[in-house]
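Entry 12.
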Amino acid sequence: MLDLAGCEKLFGSPEKIAHDLRRVASEVGFETNVAVAGNPLSAVCAAQGFAGVTVIPAGEEGLRIGTLSLETLRIPLEFVETLKRWGIRTCAEFAALPEIAIAERLGQEGLDWWRFSAWCCDHPLIAKEFPSHFEEHMDLDSPVDLLEPCFSF
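Predicted 3D structure (tokens):
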């Protein structure tokens, strides 16, 4: 995931950058889908749901992502099964449901997924910090318990 804000003067339009990224990935042996959108979650869903290069202008996320299946949002399986029993198959169909009904029937977690499907929440791109963990080890020729004690005075 990349933040392309401000890169236009150096690398060209977002669409050109996306095509260049896909071309470079292909040259080193990766078959990729690349998506550019107004927010990171939309870009991830588009890259998982559409083949090739996808550019979604800001404000059109719901229109484009709405055609994708619920599984593209990575909604928990129990919610997907419930929604399919209700006849809901796409992100747009889920987003069209009334907010209060979702809260009453699916609780807070269901409401969070509904907001995401309706593009009511915009999560900024924040880098995840991984903890530093250092470990020292030494390879010995023989196991430690087989070594003779050594005393020197």
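Annotation: Helices lie at 8-11, 14-27, 40-49, 61-65, 77-85, 91-95, 99-117. The chain has a mean pLDDT of 83.
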